[in-house]
Amino acid sequence: MNAQTPDKSRATFEEMRRILRELPGPDQEAVTAVVHRESQLTKPAGALGRLEQIAEWLAGWQGRARPQVERPRIAVFAGTHGVAARGVSAYPPEVTQQMVQNFLSGGAAINQLAQAIDADLRIYELDLAHPTADFTRGPAMSEARAANAMAYGMMAAEPGIDLLCLGEMGIANTTTAATLCAALFGGRGIDWAGPGTGVQGEALQRKIAVIDEALVRHKDLIGTHDPLDLLAAVGGEEFAAIAGAVLAARMGRIPVLLDGFACTTAAAVLWAIDRRALAHCLVAHRSAEPGHTRLLETIGQRPLLDFGMRLGEASAAALAVPLLKAAAACHNGMATFAEAGVSSKSS
Amino acid sequence: MNAQTPDKSRATFEEMRRILRELPGPDQEAVTAVVHRESQLTKPAGALGRLEQIAEWLAGWQGRARPQVERPRIAVFAGTHGVAARGVSAYPPEVTQQMVQNFLSGGAAINQLAQAIDADLRIYELDLAHPTADFTRGPAMSEARAANAMAYGMMAAEPGIDLLCLGEMGIANTTTAATLCAALFGGRGIDWAGPGTGVQGEALQRKIAVIDEALVRHKDLIGTHDPLDLLAAVGGEEFAAIAGAVLAARMGRIPVLLDGFACTTAAAVLWAIDRRALAHCLVAHRSAEPGHTRLLETIGQRPLLDFGMRLGEASAAALAVPLLKAAAACHNGMATFAEAGVSSKSS
């Protein structure tokens, strides 16, 4: 780990805020080199569309003129939520731990997707045996617990990996995501809630009511607009861990692919503090969860894919990895007009 | 090759029409097996979104309950166009042959993309030394030439491959595509023309005028609404070859990924004859070429990607292959709720 990673047992929000004040920018020299080379490759200018923008982005955040995606890591953070007891999910709370076992034995979607792209898949378990508190009654967790979860998440951004895909598992965490989005960006339950694992009708109305209840409970804190305090109040451990991973990746020059609604919400905590904080992140996919589209508009991110997925567990992030590999492969491997003896534009 | 492939030196449109009358449907038993298994996998129902639809589609057209994409082929058809002499492209006509050389020496985008997915890349050269005639003055080619090109294209759908990615190279062929679309589906040059390799301003106006000139020249034939006759009149050899490849893939139970505007136009010739003809095809990507969006709406296809690409050479089709591999991998590899000991939905 790099020197700026706090000791995870003594992490504080103040330390996280200090790191946020030191965010490095992209390597402009690498970006310039990519833009220059792009113009010489055997294709009409701009004809590879977003693949060209991805090559520039990868180069800028990896800090090298020839970007590569050869050592991608997929980090899935699992957390348990007190609010799950309120019946906001279509599945019982114990499914979080059961799915962690499924990840460890290779049976989940993310296992197949990680294998298909030959990525290093790591499952990071937060304190699953001790769910966060039901945030309709008080804060979900203390600052210490949230800051420690952030520090734990930072471990995912290990030196040597060249892309970090982030995702989560946590029954009830679309309720957490919706509440956190409303607390950070305004609006009410109806604006941010969606079916999640598949709730509808009366159950969806209950989910919306639970979110509104939490927003009333924490209205004074919401008025202070402190994103890290809101993360502790109405977030979850996996959200804090993902925010930590995003932050550590920035310091370690590792580009990040964000997965769906819960994952993007976690990263958006940093965006709420500093608008530059997610410049090294792309969102892999527009989730079918309606709150995600609203969030993407808020933070100004255009997802790579729109496949109607709503699974989490970094599945969409893993799905998008070959698109980044392709961008790097085209940029690095194509011949220039001069090398190939192809006539340039006549006009 | 299967028995229904005509001798390519004596092919006729009548033979193609006969094949079109015998189009096989999907394997419904395989589709049913996939749908049944999907419902048991460890994820909320429908949570993999379009990946689930892709698994069903692959199974139906491969005719097996466990679809695979292990032997994909990328077929790029190159053709030369008499209308190129009218200055409708940003590049001189000789770039078609130069790019074929670039494909053969491994320097083009499609070479990098094919390598990234370990696909079998084949370049199919039509009669490059003899461009089709300028279709503003008469028919682009005879029925015999078009039918022979179709038969040549059929060779790409060899038994043993499990996915066929189609694309093209041909300076001026977005002019050909726009003209063919207008002839098949109505509208004028302004409705279907776009920048192609990058023409704008006066050059784009000239391109539009050339298309309108061709539509006037062939107005009697257009009135007969015979898609194959229109293909010969205002098409190109690579368009005929792609139509042939799509048809042969259908007969050989090989799903097809279509690339961009020119490629989809070629396939749409078959759709204009029979609305079921492209059920085994997916469009990989929405081209930045505006006519493609209009064409996709016409034939009712929703592309997998929207990356603003406009290169052709099957680049977007190759880019989308890992999405299909991922769909198959999830479907085949995931554990069921029972296998993983995960609780099912509680409601």
Overview of this protein structure:
2 copies of one chain form a homodimer. Chain A has 16 helices and 5 strands. A 5-stranded parallel β-sheet of chain A has the order 2-1-3-4-5, sandwiched between helices. The model of chain A has no long low-confidence stretch (mean pLDDT 96). Chain A has helices at 13-20, 28-38, 50-62, 95-105, 109-116, 143-154, 173-185, 189-192, 201-217, 219-224, 227-234, 237-251, 261-273, 290-299, 315-333, 337-340, and strands spanning 72-78, 120-125, 163-169, 256-258, 281-283. Chain A has 347 residues and is an alpha/beta fold. Chain A has one domain (2-45, 48-337): 3-Layer(aba) Sandwich (Rossmann fold), CATH 3.40.50. In chain A, strand 4 (256-258), helix 13 and strand 5 (281-283) form a beta-alpha-beta unit. Chains A and B meet through helix 4, helix 5 and helix 15 of A and helix 4, helix 5 and helix 15 of B.
Features:
alpha/beta; globular; homodimer; Rossmann fold; 347 residues; five-stranded parallel β-sheet
Mean pLDDT of chain A: 96
Write down the overall geometry of chain A: globular
* Protein chains sharing the most extensive interface: A-B, 65 and 65 residues
CATH superfamily of chain A: Nicotinate-nucleotide-dimethylbenzimidazole phosphoribosyltransferase (CobT), large domain
Low-confidence stretches of chain A: none
Euclidean distance between termini CA atoms of chain A: 53 Å
| CATH level 1 name of chain A | Alpha Beta
Assembly annotation: homodimer
- Number of distinct helices of chain A: 16
Order of helices and strands of chain A: HHHEHHEHEHHHHHHEHEHHH
Rg of chain A, Å, rounded: 20 Å
Q: How is the biggest beta sheet of chain A arranged?
A: 5 strands, parallel
Number of domains of chain A: 1
Q: Structural class of the helix and strand makeup of chain A?
A: alpha/beta
Helix content of chain A: 40-55%
Strand order of the largest sheet of chain A: 2-1-3-4-5
Overall strand count of chain A: 5
CATH architecture name of chain A: 3-Layer(aba) Sandwich
CATH topology of chain A: Rossmann fold
Q: Into which percentage range does the β-strand content of chain A fall?
A: 5-15%
